[in-house]
Structure formats: C-alpha cells, structure tokens
TrEMBL record:
Residues 8-24 have a biased composition (Low complexity). Keywords: Methyltransferase, Transferase. The keyword Transferase applies. This is S-adenosyl-L-methionine-dependent methyltransferase.
C-alpha cells in the first residue's frame, strides 16, 4: 500500500458538479491478490421535535454488553456511541471522502449561489459538519444527532443540537442544503424524513443522501453462498427489517425524493470492495479502507441487532464473527457493497 493510502484523506475542495470517478461497471480483480496477507491500510489489526442544547441530562448513556448507547430516544439507533465506535465513524468519514475524490459532497449545491444555512442531519461525531464549516465560513452550519458525541471546540459558524430526525421539525429558518450520510438502518420512515426536508429547504435548495446497499454483491462467482460473510450480511439485513429500520431502504431513495417533490433527482453509484482485491488503484485503496472500517466495527454493527432482535447470546455472536472476519480478509472473494449517493433539488 502506498504512503498516501496510510493517511486519512482530507477534503480540500467542494464539488460544483456531479461526481466523476464512478466505478467501472465491473471491478477487475488484482491477479496478485491472495487470501491472507494482513489486508490493512493502517498496520496490524485484530482483524422539535424537542430540539435541545447539549444539556447535562443527555449525557446519561446506557451500557449493554460492554458498549454504551445513547439514552435520548433510547433504542432508536442500534450502534454504540462509545469512543471505539466514534473513532470508526471518523475513519468512515475519510473513507467516504476518498470515494468522492476528496470532496465533501457531489451535488450542485452552492454552484449558483452561496449556501447560507446547511444541515448535517445525523451528524455523528460532527466531522463532516466541522470540515464543511471550515471550508465554508460564509455558511451557517447545524449538525443534529441523537448522541452528544461531538467535540466542544468547533468553528464559530457551526452549532450542534440533540434531536430526533423522525420527530416533527420545528426549525424557524429554512436551509439551502441538507446532507444525510449513512443513516440507513436508523430511520424508520424515510418518506416522512424527505417530506420534512423538502418543507425545510429554501426554493432551489438541495438534499444529498448517501448510503450503501445491503446485502453485498459479487460479479464473478467468488463469493460462496454458504460462507459466514454472506450469512452475517443476510442476518444483519433481516434484523434491521424486524427492528423497523431496514438496511435495504436505499433502493427507494430516488423514487421517494421525487414523491416528496424534489426535481433534478440524480443517483450516482460507487462500490465498496470488502478488501483490497480490485486491480483498479483507487478501488484497491478504497477496499483497504472498507476492510478496516468493517473489521473495526463488526462487533458494534452486530451486537444489538443479533442479541436484542435475533436472540443470539454475545458469546454465540463472537464465535460466529471469527469466521466472518476470515471471509472479510480473503482477497480471493471479490465482493462489494453498492454505495449510492442520491440528490435532488427543491423547485425555485
């Protein structure tokens, strides 16, 4: 892996047009790939709603199976909010920026006029909102999330709020750009979320939504149907559906944005290889980031869904994940997750 692959890519220029660099129709495997080579870009690895300020009561997290989860709207989000998961979310941000050729977003938002107010809906650690606020000091940026896991020192044009995006929005001033990334699996009613986004945008404003599609795909028959990774991914999706926040909802974003009233709706497809199996240089590097992201987050992604929803014990899950990690590491498996960025504009 080159030196550049070992650094976190930093966004330095915002887009002014739809993304180039879309993936080849079929990713070609690297003929030099082999099964077990420590596939890590980062060194060794153990493979209004009732909008409130960050009040002290919000910091009372709950603990379950050794991980902490948000207490505000308890159970609304299946991932932990502890330091380990927050570190992975920041890694995941850099993965997305690399995928987008070091751009923070790909829609034409801001092409014709400055973006006055910007909403990062489901901001997580706040890293995207911070980068955007730094790059756009002329914009007023609001980051919203269920958990108060954002840093205390941020650009002066950025404000963080604790809110449930699925409750009624009560913002008094509309936005020019609404950004949502990796919320699939945490939203139960996407059509309503898109309607509220439409209502809270200025005419001509944009929305951009970014999510992977599950389950994973293989184009060349190298993904055994009975392998642990396939089983895990299907159970992961099954549990999300039972929970009421499906991980396959990304399939409907394009149609739902149109139904909400958006025009100029576009969908751009990327691919997240499970590791560095592709021959293409960009997708080989991207695969290394995906591998590290999933490997680091596999327990966090699985724990609540498998134990609370599917009825597994934590011990059963850990034994199962050993084989899932082996499959993730196997570069003879040429699998990937489709990743879609869908954006649309509110009519002038």
């Amino acid at each position: 892996m080159s030196d550049t692959a070992q650094k976190s890519p930093s966004p330095r220029s915002s887009p002014r047009a739809a993304a180039g660099g879309a993936p080849p129709t079929v990713l070609e495997a690297d003929p030099d790939a082999y099964e077990d080579d420590g596939d890590s870009a980062f060194g060794p690895s153990d493979q209004g709603s009732e909008t409130t300020s960050l009040a002290s009561s919000i910091y009372r997290f709950r603990e379950e199976n050794g991980r902490t989860y948000n207490a505000y709207k308890e159970g609304a989000y299946f991932l932990p909010n502890d330091e380990s998961e927050n570190s992975r979310l920041d890694l995941q941000h850099n993965l997305c920026i690399l995928m987008q050729d070091n751009r923070l977003f790909i829609s034409p938002a801001g092409k014709d006029k400055p973006l006055g107010r910007v909403l990062d809906a489901g901001c997580g650690t706040g890293i995207w909102a911070i980068d955007f606020a730094d790059e756009h000091p002329e914009s007023s940026v609001v980051g919203v999330d269920l958990s108060p896991i954002q840093p205390p020192f941020v650009p002066p044009n950025l404000q963080f709020l604790i809110d449930d995006l699925e409750s009624e929005w009560t913002y008094t001033t509309p936005f020019d750009f609404i950004y949502m990334r990796l919320l699939c699996g945490s939203i139960k009613d996407w059509p309503n979320l898109f309607r509220q986004s439409f209502q809270n945008l200025n005419p001509g404003g944009y929305i951009e939504v970014c999510d992977p599609l599950n389950p994973l795909i293989c184009d060349d028959g190298t993904l055994p149907a009975d392998c642990a990774l396939v089983k895990w991914n299907h159970l992961f999706v099954e549990a999300s559906i039972k929970l009421g926040a499906s991980l396959i909802s990304v399939r409907d974003y394009e149609k739902q944005l149109v139904e909400a009233g958006f025009i100029n709706v576009e969908k751009v497809e990327f691919k997240w290889p499970i590791n560095s199996w592709p021959k293409d240089k960009k997708y080989k590097e991207l695969g290394s980031w995906v591998y590290e992201n999933i490997l680091e987050g596999l327990q966090a992604l699985s724990l609540m869904l498998f134990t609370n929803v599917l009825g597994w014990t934590p011990e059963e899950l850990e034994v199962f994940l050993v084989d899932v990690r082996k499959d993730l590491k196997n570069r003879s498996i040429h699998a990937y997750w489709p990743f879609y960025i869908v954006y649309g504009q509110k009519p002038e």
